[in-house]
Amino acid sequence: IRCWSNIPFITVPLSRAHGKSFAHRSELKHAKRIVVKLGSAVVTRGDECGLALGRLASIVEQVSMLQNQGREMMIVTSGAVAFGKQRLRHEILLSQSVRQALHSGQSQLKDMAIPVLEARACAAAGQSGLMALYEAMFTQYSICAAQILVTNLDFHDEQKRRNLNGTLHELLRMNIVPIINTNDAVVPPPEPNSDLQGVNVISVKDNDSLAARLAVEMKTDLLIVLSDVEGLFDSPPGSDDAKLIDIFYPGDQQSVTFGTKSRVGMGGMEAKVKAALWALQGGTSVVIANGTHPKISGHVITDIVEGKKVGTFFSEVKPAGPTVEQQAEMARAGGRTLAALQPEQRAEIIYRLADLLTDQREEILLANKKDLEEAENKGRLALPLLKRLSLSTSKLNSLAIGLRQIAASSQDSVGRVIRRTRIAKDLDLEQVTVPIGVLLVIFESRPDCLPQVSALAIASGNGLLLKGGKEAAHSNQILHRLTQEALCIHGVRDAVQLVNTREEVEDLCRLDKLIDLIIPRGSSQLVRNIQKAAKGIPVMGHSEGICHVYVDTDASVEKVTRIIRDSKCEYPAACNALETLLIHRDLLRTPLFDQIIDMLRVEQVKIHAGPKFASYLTFSPSEVKSLRTEYGDLECCIEVVDSVQEAIEHIHKYGSSHTDVIITENEKTAEFFLQHVDSACVFWNASTRFSDGYRFGLGAEVGISTSRIHARGPVGIEGLLTTKWLLRGDNHVVSDFSEHGSMKYLHESLPLPQRNAS
Predict the structure, then answer these.
(1) Do 299 and 444 lie in a common domain?
(2) Of 26, 544, 581, 755, which is the most exposed, with the fewest CB atoms less than 10 Å away?
(3) Do residues 237 and 136 share a domain?
(4) Which residues contact 366 (CB under 8 A, 6 or more apart)?
(5) Residue 137 burial by Cβ neighbours in a 10 Å radius (0-12, 13-18, 19+)
């Protein structure tokens, strides 16, 4: 009986009607009954003699965890032959060494030859030891395991099939993990031409076919086949053009070239695919993945069940659109075409997009209204995020103005010469700006981000992948359609792609061969998750916006309340909003301090007292839990410092290197603060809210970077460019510049070409 799990920490229903496989990876978390097939290469050591105990222990731990979650786990295992081979070799060596020691002495022991061992004998010697090992490992997790040995004949005899089925169901009912293996000690050779004659016939000639047959017989939800390769490739793994196939569909066999079989065991990849397709046809979902890789084998099974992009997933449902990998390749090709356009043509695309934002205003706002209504009905967004989700006529007008600024300032961004050097006579070197490549921008609850980022990518000649939050799905769809409409005027529609598939953010962050830079736009938690998940791809951004305003003893009364109010209250959800207010100790119990507190109360800002500030008060506000808090709402921390130096030290210790401000009329103090605060943006007598690409005159920004490499602060077009070197020579070779060569290095700096005045 399939039912909800009785384990309290499982939050998804583990039930579904069997008969149809899962269509998407994200549905695998609902799998109740799972078969894990362990190939010979997974279970055995590299020398094929003995078991890979560390790997096996990790697999048992994962299976136990899933079993304890209320799932029904079964294992189809190899390894008896290898374990038996190890035991028999040991016995043979021991007996030979005794005989030779008696007759020849120790000197000839190293010359002993080990005879070739027959596989059936090895299996007979290894079965009991293999099962004892499994039992010992599962006992550590309070789980009982039971051994079942089968042959092909057991599936052809109806009575034996019923017996096997009944035994397995009874074991699962008692929360026991069945360990199934072919009885290699007596197994006959497979019958010729009996394989895959129909949905009810598959020869059990290796553990791949055994696992498939068992999965269908037991109406299993998921079959996980672990091997020594990452999954299914479109050509033999290791060849130059081999690409891992994420999803494999029936009928795709013609696009695949199979390599040789596994280093050990009976079945190669072709046998695995045949078995997987047979199981899929019987209603069981299948994933083929690597169970030997040291970096992933410790969580490969649980990752698959969680729906992560691991190995090759077999599905009967083809998606309507391209895969995310195909979208990335389309963005790469489109970006290169975009970069090859004239600057005026790229500007025309952005001007057209700006016009569409105002011309199609009603349609955009209607789509945004749907998103807002759905978010409010589901109650899944906090008020600050709802504000970010909302679009208005004034927001669209501001967007259009910003886009026109980008178009006007982008005329000479790509291909600009930034350095010229004469290396030698007739040998000139240039450093020129070029696009980074393919950008992946992940954003939450901010549909206005889509046209901004698209315009910056177009201006800089980059291909772009956009992954928006599902809460803004309707808004993102219309804005992306308008972006592609603008791109069409110069035939580069594919340069900007919106990812609509079910890919998790973590899976996108693994596409290191397709994506060159990730830019997260959203909560600090989102940014941290992406920084953690990114595999070999640089991440540009900041995880937190803990911005400080320091009020100095020489601060102007008129400026203080205006700057603090604007920094905190104008848009408290922004990453450049004030979070910690630092006040010089001498200002406590002064009229200026009272004005600050009164203003914050009028604006309904909740105050949290820092430890030092709380010590000065008899009745203080709630003491802050952490001085490293980004509130993102009408809340802030107030702390007291003794000097500008202490303010700087506090910012360096508790800040996030985003934006920090000093309010003072003392120019010397201000300059000291500006020079010594190590943040991306440091201001004097100005609101933290000026830390913005639009307000800096960049037109827009893809985000604010607090990193110290490449780009820092609000990132506009310049931050989306890198450089390449162009060397123009005339039959030059390095040997001419040797000690006895005919040429000398000049290394003369040459004037740069005039920039486009427009």
Answers:
(1) no
(2) 755
(3) yes
(4) none
(5) buried
Domain of 304 in residue numbering reads as 25-90+117-188+199-314
**pLDDT tens string 505-523:** 877 888 888 999 999 987 7
Q: Are 203 and 308 part of one and the same domain?
A: yes
Q: Where are the alpha helices (DSSP H) in 360-392?
A: 361-378, 383-389
- Identify which of 181, 182, 165 has the alpha carbon closest to the alpha carbon of residue 173: 165
Each residue's pLDDT tens digit, 278-296: 999 999 999 999 998 877 7
Cβ 637 vs Cβ 687: under 8 Å? no
Q: Does 307 share its domain with 396?
A: no
* pLDDT, mean of residues 522-545: 83
294-298, 485-489, 506-510, 562-566: which range is least confident on average? 294-298
Same domain, residue pair 576 and 492: no
Q: Is residue 712 part of a domain?
A: no
pLDDT in tens, 405-423: 999 988 888 999 999 999 9
Q: What CATH number is attached to the domain comprising 676? A: 3.40.309.10
Report the mean per-residue pLDDT for the chain: 86
Q: How many domains does the chain have?
A: 3
Residue 559 and residue 659 in one domain: yes
- Position 410 in a domain: yes
Which pair of tokens denotes residue 73? 């786990």
Q: What is the mean pLDDT of residues 552-578?
A: 94
Cα distances (Å, whole numbers) of residue 404 to 432, 451, 495, 634 = 25, 12, 20, 33
The burial class, CB within 10 Å (0-12 / 13-18 / 19+), for 456 is buried
Domain edge (last residue) among 314, 341, 360: 314
How many CB atoms are closer than 10 A to CB 313?
24
- Beta strands 713-715 and 703-705 are antiparallel
Residue 687: both structure tokens together: 């609101």
DSSP classification of residue 115: P
- Give the pLDDT band of residue 32 (cuts 50, 70, 90): very high
> For residues 18 and 271, which has the higher predicted lDDT (pLDDT)?
271
For residue 716 the two structure tokens come to 């506009």
Are 278 and 333 within one domain?
Answer: no
Report the CATH number that the domain containing residue 376 is assigned in CATH. 3.40.605.10
Backbone angles phi, psi at 500, to 5 degrees: -110, 0
Helix pair 361-378, 473-487: axis angle to 10 deg: 150
- 455 and 506 co-located in one domain: yes
Instruction: Give start and end residues of each alpha helix (H) in 488-590.
Output: 505-508, 524-533, 557-569
Tell me the C-alpha distance between 250 and 590, whole Å. Answer: 78
Secondary structure class of 540 (helix, strand, coil): coil
Instruction: Answer whether residue 733 is part of any domain.
Output: no
Long-range contacts (CB closer than 8 Å, 24 or more residues apart) made by 252-258: 256/232
For 413, the token pair is 């961004």
| 193 falls within a domain | no
C-alpha–C-alpha distance, residues 362 and 342, integer Å? 33
Last residue in a domain, options 292, 314, 336 = 314
Structure token digits, residue 170:
């009874």
- Whole-number pLDDT of residue 1: 30
What are 610-647's pLDDT values in tens digits? 999 999 887 778 889 999 999 988 999 999 999 999 99
